[in-house]
RNA sequence: UGGGGCGUAGCCAAGCGGUAAGGCAGCGGGUUUUGAUCCCGUCAUGCGAAGGUUCGAAUCCUUCCGCCCCAGCCA
């Protein structure tokens, strides 16, 4: 019996955003009978959190409205593109949980059609071969406040243009020698309409078409027409393309395209303490500030995957931040919340001591061993249970012991008691220091009959700490990550963004000790190390028998505020 | 200083003439063998500003202010 009335769930539903409203209206009015969207990355780098927003939007819309979403590589500039990027993008989209409709598309698959459309434009006198060099073209274009001037070759005959363009295609001209331009309006207040270049010469091998072409269509000439070829109904891009929309529409109106897609723009994602420009991410990689595109500190999809972020958490994040036309900077804390939210619900629990401190139980027989059973998750029986072996010698975290402390400190203190998670309550008697005054061991006593119950004398411990036994644990390393930048907006105020790199964004802990069950950890599988945070195996640095764990994200820590 | 956009809490974001949803963060409290989770409460007499229209304005009008994008043969 379902007791969730649809009205109640409807009341809790997130309100539709402006693009969903546009689609609803188009469907209602019969402008389209079903929708087609597309995610169109250029394969010139790795995908990042900003792309995740676009992916979730485009694939999400198709799902919500029963339409389809294509994956199309917008590969019109062979100089920057490669198969390595194509492969990583395919992997990232799939990993995020989306499946594109049909085969993967490449804009380069449409080069023949695009070329014929260029000829079509020439034949109706709406495109011409321009002999201006790139530098001259810039001068002729005018400025933001001054109109441009017509190219000296703007009025060539159709025949001459056809001949010249064919020669361009045949490789008879050097790069930059000439270009094909749309004949629109050199005085337009919109600079994109001042006779934009639609074909340029690039004698570069293309990752997908090889050496077939030496002229390549520009983004503006390729994008809308490719949308039309695929039957895309709603072509969604970011705000900076807004000024290109009149041009997008001009091509659709002036060419014999099979459909009339419409372009809509939304605000790209910005996150504080993060950079999301391809140029900057590339620089972090190339200059060696990080371990590669998939460094766990990177906001790339591959970096976040290695870090231990889950597809569901990223999708949830994209859902929560909304889709609008207002420039905004989302607090990275929102992302962290989504990651914790998903991991808390799904990650099995385990104990791992990050900074070991030896504890000897003086009243526990030296040769005695016990086994305790602990739940895999405090409120999910389906996650099973694990076995913990207990003995007279243990390790706890250095942070969890103090010789003396005030009442706010709820961990182990001399003369006080603490609960060992899933095991006994113990009481500390003394600690031993080395010559440098460093505490190297704690002597403590087990309080009898405290498994699953409070001490019989009524003196209850205030806190609970995690532990591993000395005789049975797994040695491991742990890599702790902090935000990559120390400033909310790296590189703002004319500074170089590299100046605000956080020198402490990576802390490698060696000699950590985990409970034995962690020996079976697999990459991309999250655990909660109780009281520490969420962790997953790092595939790159782990070796058999010596795992390395990445801290995906720490637990929320209200003690940190009290401790200050 | 041309053109195109955008301004609702610390952050994100609903709202579309009927008297400011929700989430994150924060703060206070409760439960707890994780200082976690969970639960409860609290958080905009005001929507960039000033005028105007109206019984009534975040929503309509006017003016002003601020921020973002555009002068690649990049996307």
Automatic annotation (TrEMBL):
A motif ('HIGH' region) lies at residues 41-51. ATP binds at residues 42-44, 48-54, 238, 268-269. Belongs to the class-I aminoacyl-tRNA synthetase family. Its main location: cytoplasm. This is Glutamine--tRNA ligase. Monomer. It holds the Pfam family tRNA-synt_1c_C2. A motif ('KMSKS' region) lies at residues 275-279. Residues 464-538 form the tRNA synthetases class I (E and Q) anti-codon binding domain. It comes from Gilvimarinus algae. L-glutamine binds at residues 74, 219. It catalyses: tRNA(Gln) + L-glutamine + ATP = L-glutaminyl-tRNA(Gln) + AMP + diphosphate. It is an enzyme of class 6 (ligase). The keyword Protease does not apply. Residues 347-445 form the Glutamyl/glutaminyl-tRNA synthetase class Ib anti-codon binding domain. It is found in: Cytoplasm.
């Amino acid at each position: 019996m379902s007791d969730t009335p649809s009205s109640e769930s409807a009341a809790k539903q997130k309100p539709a955003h402006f693009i969903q409203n546009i689609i609803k209206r188009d469907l209602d009015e019969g402008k389209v009978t079903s929708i087609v969207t597309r995610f169109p990355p250029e394969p010139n780098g790795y995908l990042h959190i900003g792309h995740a927003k676009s992916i979730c939007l485009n694939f999400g819309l198709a799902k919500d409205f029963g339409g389809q979403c294509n994956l199309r590589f917008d590969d019109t500039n062979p100089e920057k593109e490669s198969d390595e990027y194509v492969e990583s993008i395919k992997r990232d989209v799939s990993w995020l949980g989306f499946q594109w409709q049909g085969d993967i598309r490449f804009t380069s698959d449409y080069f023949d059609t695009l070329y014929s459309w260029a000829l079509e434009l020439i034949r109706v006198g709406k495109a011409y071969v321009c002999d201006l060099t790139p530098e001259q073209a810039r001068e002729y274009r005018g400025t933001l406040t001054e109109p441009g001037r017509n190219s000296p070759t703007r009025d060539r005959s159709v025949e001459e243009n056809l001949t010249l363009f064919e020669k361009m295609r045949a490789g008879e001209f050097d790069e930059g020698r000439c270009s094909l331009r749309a004949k629109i309006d050199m005085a337009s207040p919109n600079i994109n309409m001042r006779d934009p270049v639609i074909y340029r010469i690039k004698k570069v091998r293309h990752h997908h078409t090889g050496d077939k072409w030496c002229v390549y269509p520009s983004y503006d000439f390729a994008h809308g027409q490719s949308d039309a070829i695929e039957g895309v109904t709603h072509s969604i891009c970011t705000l900076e393309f807004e000024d290109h929309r009149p041009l997008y529409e001009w091509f659709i109106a002036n060419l014999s395209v099979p459909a009339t897609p419409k372009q809509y723009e939304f605000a790209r994602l910005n996150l504080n303490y993060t950079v999301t420009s391809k140029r900057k991410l590339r620089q972090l990689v190339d200059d060696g500030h990080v371990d590669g595109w998939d460094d766990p500190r990177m906001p790339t999809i591959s970096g976040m995957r290695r870090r231990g972020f889950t597809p569901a958490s990223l999708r949830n994040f994209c859902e929560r931040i909304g889709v609008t036309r207002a420039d905004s900077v989302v607090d990275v804390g929102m992302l962290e919340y989504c990651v914790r939210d998903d991991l808390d619900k799904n990650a099995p629990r385990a104990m791992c001591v990050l900074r070991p401190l030896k504890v000897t139980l003086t009243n526990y027989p030296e040769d005695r061993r016990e086994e305790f059973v602990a739940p895999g998750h405090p409120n999910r029986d389906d996650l099973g249970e694990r076995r913990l072996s207990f003995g007279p010698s243990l390790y706890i975290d250095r942070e969890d012991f103090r010789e003396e402390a005030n009442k706010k400190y709820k961990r182990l203190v001399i003369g006080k008691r603490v609960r060992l998670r899933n095991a006994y309550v113990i009481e500390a008697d003394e600690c031993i220091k080395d010559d440098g005054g460093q505490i190297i061991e704690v002597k403590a006593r087990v309080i009898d009959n405290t498994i699953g119950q409070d001490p019989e004398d009524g003196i209850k411990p205030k806190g609970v700490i995690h532990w591993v036994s000395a005789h049975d644990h797994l040695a491991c390393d742990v890599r702790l990550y902090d935000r990559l930048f120390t400033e909310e907006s790296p590189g703002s105020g004319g500074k170089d963004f590299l100046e605000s790199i956080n020198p402490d964004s990576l802390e490698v802990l060696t000699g950590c000790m985990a409970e034995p069950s962690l020996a079976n950890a697999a990459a991309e599988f999250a655990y909660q190390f109780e009281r520490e945070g969420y962790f997953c195996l790092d595939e790159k640095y782990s070796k058999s028998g010596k795992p390395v764990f990445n801290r995906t994200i720490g637990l929320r820590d209200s003690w940190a505020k009290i401790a200050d």
